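Table S7 (text form). Paired inputs.
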Amino acid sequence: MTTANGRGRLIYGCMGLGGPWDGTSYGASEIDQAAAVIEAAQGIGIGLFDHADIYRSGKSEAVFGEVLARSQGLREKIQLQTKCGIRLGERGLETHYDLSREAILERVNQSLKRLQTDYVDVLLLHRPDPLMDPREVADAVGQLMAEGKVRQLGVSNMSGAQIAYLQDELETPIVANQLEMSLLHRDWLESTVLVNHAGGLEYSFPHGTLEHCMAKGVELQAYGSLAQGRYTGAKAEELSPAESATAGMLERLAGEKGTTPESVLLGWLMKHPARISPIVGTTNPARIKACADAASVAATMTRAQWYGLWVAARGINIP
């Protein structure tokens, strides 16, 4: 799941495709938008496209499937992953989770139909389901793999302990864990250094999750990695002092390295030895292209530069 040098790789997140989240249908403009972002992503070397059955009420998968149908040979050039486990607006509930055997099989088959493909390279379980029976998950995943519909399994928003609990019942390894990780949302990082420190109580990220994933070779996929443009496009008056200082440092480093602030921001994530793979979710082709140098920035970023960005984002020094 990771690149040959052990670092992560860029992933394109398809949540922005397909039009509004409501029940309205998609049209030619949404399909054209999907085609444009796929082309831009491929242009900077992105080969994995991330979906979920709930994105845009299924329309993200559907417009992507339309592009696959009209682009001969495209499916063989890319990897697809999708997620299941969240149910929206069903059974009188706004949201609930469902990782039962029947739900996994139902949702994967629906995703394959929308994507107009016979298989996904990776299936992620979208969120922990307190009512989950790991044996049911193992049975459903085993069936999907035997049918050739799923090639690998991952999870999303799970702790190291939850991954280990599930893995005990599975015959296939869990290859990825998708979490919110960025220079702005740093719980994943702060929790690793604030052990035995009062400041650690401010962060809810389950300690040991990074270490578990690193030890077991689980790829960490970072959603929200561009921090919703907070450092690379927000108006100055909208920024806190720490955010303004961080944005300025990203600009300076980008100038020194002959690249973009977006590439520096993602390179900071990829510098971490946990093999973090940032997910790029913008639907702006120009901004996708601005991420092209992330891996090379990670390879050349110094320890002082990495810590400098972290301290700037914190607004206070590390302990």
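Next pair, protein 2 of 2.
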Amino acid sequence: MFCMAAQSLGYKVAVVDPGNASPAGSVADLHLAADYLDADALHELSERCAAVTTEFENVPATALDLLARTTRVAPAAASVAIAQDRISEKTFLKGRGFPVVPFHALRDPDDLKAIDLGLFPGIVKSARFGYDGKGQMHVRDTDELFEAFESMQMQPCVLERRVELKLEVSCIVARNDAGATTSWPIAENRHRHGILDVSIVPARIDADLTTRAREIANAVAAALDYRGVLCVEMFVTREGELLVNEIAPRPHNSGHYSIDACVTSQFEQQARVLAQMPLGATDQHMPAVMVNVLGDVWFDSAAPDAARREPPWHRVLALDHAKLHLYGKAEPRRGRKMGHVTCLGETLPAALKTARAVKRVLGIPGADEL
């Protein structure tokens, strides 16, 4: 999606991706099938490209540092490195006064000795490479905490107190070299089994909370001295308090709706910042509900050996205002994000009605919960 957006602005795109069946590589002008730290690939990328960005936060910050010696890199390695490690991320946010869930860093067994019992019940989250609910365990006391830490091979983790949530929201913001920012409408996000299921935009929150969420996202981008598109995920507690949960230094799943529903998509904006072009307007044309399409819809049942079949895309496309986006991933797997459907409407209830229909057509659970 980034490649297509950049190409629509007249740029050519090179992609480093170790996979031979890389979705980005299949549409890029050049695909270098190599590891993210491959010296030859990084050298060729820096020689061919005027600027380099990253598609997801697990690209090693070291690679971005190496590239920055000879070419423009945005976001900078320092910004990405903070988001790659939950301990660094939480410490950074708390240290700069942003509201976060109470937490305790666990780097070694000695850190378990000074646990505040007020953090229970809690959630243990791996410090690195946690994604879509992976690397997380719920714990009720110190015994379960130790068991969780052992099961994660005593790798660095974070213990977070469980908080009663009203809903989860995200604000995606873009910031350029001059420090100018723009942001998209706040998205209301619903998850299923730790994976984003639906984003509802604009979020069903009041104006004061909307303003506060934008202010926090812009302030986080400024504190990072960020360049590019950044997503700030937040919890809304039952008391109406906003807490920063995570930051993602890239275009984000909850902003995919912007391709169809906004003047400038998050992907085009990333290309604009990278090319040092003016920021585009982020006005939303009409309400939107994005439904994630996981690999589960390719299978007739939940059985591990269920027969694979092609989902009924014709029935999705027969729905008015339903926009299908498939990512070109070769192998559908349960829990793997394979695409999304953006459901548009003159009103939010109309968009929600289409989203319910999409879920029913594809057999995605939760249609009646929207």
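Residues 165-369 form a domain with the D-amino Acid Aminotransferase; Chain A, domain 1 fold (CATH 3.30.470.20).
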